[in-house]
Design a protein that fits this description.
Distance between the termini: 42 Å
Strand content: 15-25%
Number of helices: 11
Oligomer: single chain
Helix content: 40-55%
Length: 281
């Protein structure tokens, strides 16, 4: 397909994953829609000031979303359930491809097989933590959503891996400890650029040897896809989605004494993720 065709396809389907900011969502106010179009109206100065003063609390938004409708949606996506649509199947296969690449790296150097310690930050339903435990690693996994962490623990227990992996409810910034490897897969999409550096820095401080991270990379093309998706009609069904320039993430890692050892890119329909493996210099 041409890029133009793909943009049109995304416009029709991406609303489930890339919502517009609240200020840009269509209004149902009769004053705005009286003649079938948008009527010009000047908002009161107090309302404008209140909007500007309202800070976006991404952490709260993510926690609440993944403890409610987000849990129902994403626990199905990250499973073998057939109760998903075609777009969600693309998301599932793309995410699994990223997970498989991480597992391949870890299998190559046998760090899990030798009983290495791993911190999986933002573990979701355990898509990475559980197979790591199955490979022999000692895994400490966490998620900001208690529903997601609880589901991960249930899945681990069903595979008799509860003794090799622990799951707790915690946000990235509150994690403590020291681990051979820290992983953070497809989590930064929920946090803006100005918070990325500190979050990466904190996770680096937990790692003795290696940090593996994936994120939605900022490019003009991907930014265009995100923008087209945000303009699609319909109510918001997800949290905000943030793209990050690869050079910014690499700079954050280098600042903490890490160098890039391996990279990968996963790009399928409706899913794109840059994967970096960084090791201490």
């Amino acid at each position: 397909y041409s890029r133009a065709t793909l943009l049109l396809a995304v416009a029709g389907a991406a609303e489930a994953f890339l919502p517009a900011p609240p200020a840009l969502r269509p209004s149902s106010s009769p004053a705005l829609c009286a003649s079938g179009g948008l009527a010009a109206r000047t908002a009161p100065a107090s309302a404008v000031l209140a909007l500007k003063a309202q800070a976006v609390d991404d952490k709260t938004e993510v926690r609440e979303y993944f403890n409610s409708e987000g849990f129902n949606r994403w626990s199905k996506i990250y499973s073998e359930s057939e109760d998903v649509n075609s777009v969600q199947k693309f998301i599932r296969s793309g995410h699994q491809e990223t997970i498989d690449k991480v597992l391949m790296w870890i299998d190559d150097d046998q760090t899990a097989a030798r009983g290495g310690t791993f911190c999986d930050a933002g573990c979701g339903v355990g898509s990475l933590a559980i197979p790591l435990a199955g490979m022999g690693a000692k895994v400490s996994a966490s998620d900001i959503s208690s529903a997601m962490a609880g589901e991960a623990a249930k899945r681990a227990e069903s595979l008799d891996l509860a003794g090799s992996a622990t799951f707790e409810t915690a946000d990235l910034e509150s994690l403590k400890g020291e681990y051979d490897t820290v992983t953070c897969i497809d989590v930064l999409i929920h946090y803006p650029t100005e918070k990325m550096d500190d979050m990466v820095g904190h996770l680096c401080s937990l790692s003795k040897k290696r940090f593996i991270i994936s994120f939605a990379p900022y490019t003009i093309f991907y930014a265009a896809l995100k923008w087209v998706g945000s303009m699609a009609p319909g109510p918001s069904k997800a949290t905000r989605a943030y793209l990050h320039a690869e050079e910014d993430v690499v700079a954050a890692l280098k600042k903490r004494g890490f160098k890039i050892q391996r990279t990968e890119m996963t790009a399928t329909n409706f899913y794109f993720s840059r994967l970096l493996e960084a090791v201490r210099e």
